[in-house]
Predict the structure.
Amino acid sequence: MDSSNAESKRLNSPGRADDWGSDRSLRAEVVTWLCEISQSWNPVGIGVIEIRGAKIEGELRLDNASINVVLRLLRCCIKGTIYLRNATLRTIDLEGTYLFPTKVTDDDSKKRIWCIKATEAEINGSVRLKNGFSAFGMVDFDNQKSDSMTNNPTTTIRLGILGTGKKDLRSGIIGLGNMGSLHARSVLEGKVPRMRLTAVCDINPERFAEGDV
């Protein structure tokens, strides 16, 4: 990969979405509206809503929705929570997408940061969370009814970066490049409850002198 391609890839990383222009910003309400009306413009269920490389701002509130299309949000940065509780949908594809929830919610008297809350969702296709997918909070498809979870033969998926016991989750980061520095700052700034950064390493000592973390 030449230097120009490497720089383009770096600038287009969802982790750099704050540097993207307004032409790449999309309100979450627009995506919600497209999903909600999918039954009317796609009655036979063969359509696709595909959004690439956008900064989606706000919460995607799709609780109890009937989404009659494949929803593909690829290499996007979503600044909010995706709510799919009791929703019915075909396939949701979030390959390469970053989820940055903006609110801390009370859930059973516990403070939690939800990236995806899809309890009891009925998914008739698959859920694709790979190829660089990153969630800075909890991802919950607990008790959902799904025909196919990508790379997972079970019918339940619960992912997250929050500790589940009484002690904080201790983490270490190898490599302080763009991604490593981003993750480290998120932990150090308290954006990930109950996680502590206990070790970092990089082959380039100048990374520490530059104050990347």
